[in-house]
Design the sequence.
């Protein structure tokens, strides 16, 4: 069936704002801002101390890092939520800190997983991160299940992390993962369309991704100088050029079109999703084309929530920088784990 616009239930209303918070760019910039990160640490001061570093064997020699936080709100945890950050984000991204704090308070254990080459993990694997590395993320979630045997295992991701969350959910039954729910916020569906949208969006979005990616590539080159020399790549590149070079030289996809198809979840690619899921996005997201969602084929147990405002992973309700997504995430996952 085609994607459905579902009005949230159980007390939640469609997110809509007036004034500056109705601006998509204000929403998007606040979502991952240092101000929001500081606010998250103020709201959840014990999160850092309650988190312990974990290294996962994800198969085929791949190791990924994450941080486990154990809840103390209930005698027994409701379950464990694996949180996935966006591209060039980290487990310290403000939206992940806020989500972790809220879920811990609601009685969930939380595992914040780093993708390859994100955070301070470039040394763990020789190969470069790219968005088609789904097998190792499936392997990480399976390793989490095997190591901690949670009462209920749930998955939530933001931006590219939302795309990964839905792809993991598609593969979970075949991988032996007993996944109860997947929750995705502003996931890119068609990567080619998303890149095109970034290219026509205000310059700050492409510049942000390029600068973060260049920093990551430089770190990789320092760690593995016998494998990488990006010196000719980094002279005022565009995002399209950098991606094309990476695909050509360091993947088996050869060209951009094949690579983008490799992690696309557009069209009917989610039609076989057997695990209940919620997908949330905003009509005014400046980097994800809303048209991709109108042609999305999802099963009846997949809830689609398309809001008028929210920007990219924002949905900021007020100047205290609280997000509407927080309550929705906790409510949906609590219901799934009941």
Sequence:
């Amino acid at each position: 069936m085609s994607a459905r616009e579902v009005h949230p239930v159980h007390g939640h209303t469609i997110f809509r704002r007036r004034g500056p918070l109705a601006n998509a760019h204000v929403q998007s910039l606040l979502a991952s801002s240092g101000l929001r990160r500081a606010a998250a640490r103020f709201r959840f001061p014990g999160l850092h101390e309650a988190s312990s570093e974990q290294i996962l064997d994800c198969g085929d020699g791949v190791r990924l890092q994450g941080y486990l936080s154990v809840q103390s709100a209930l005698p027994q945890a409701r379950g464990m939520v694996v949180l996935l950050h966006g591209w060039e984000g980290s487990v310290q991204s403000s939206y992940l800190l806020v989500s972790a704090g809220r879920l811990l308070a609601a009685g969930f254990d939380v595992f914040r997983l780093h993708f390859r080459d994100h955070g301070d993990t470039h040394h763990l694997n020789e190969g470069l991160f790219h968005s088609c590395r789904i097998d190792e993320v499936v392997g990480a979630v399976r390793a989490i299940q095997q190591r901690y045997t949670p009462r209920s295992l749930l998955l939530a991701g933001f931006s590219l992390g939302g795309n990964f969350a839905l792809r993991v959910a598609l593969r979970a039954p075949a991988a032996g993962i007993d996944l109860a729910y997947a929750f995705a916020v502003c996931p890119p569906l068609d990567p080619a369309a998303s890149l095109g949208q970034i290219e026509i969006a205000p310059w700050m979005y492409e510049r942000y991704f390029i600068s973060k990616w260049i920093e990551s590539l430089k770190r990789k080159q320092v760690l593995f100088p016998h494998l990488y020399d990006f010196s000719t790549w980094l002279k005022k590149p565009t995002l399209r050029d950098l991606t094309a070079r990476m695909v050509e030289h360091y993947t088996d996809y050869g060209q951009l079109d094949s690579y983008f198809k490799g992690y696309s979840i557009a069209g009917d690619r989610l039609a076989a999703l057997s695990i209940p899921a919620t997908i949330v996005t905003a009509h005014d997201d400046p980097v994800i084309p809303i048209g991709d969602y109108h042609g999305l084929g999802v099963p009846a147990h997949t809830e689609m929530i398309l809001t008028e405002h929210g920007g990219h992973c924002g949905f900021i309700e007020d100047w205290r920088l609280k997000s509407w997504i927080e309550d929705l995430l906790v409510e949906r996952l609590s219901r799934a784990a009941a």
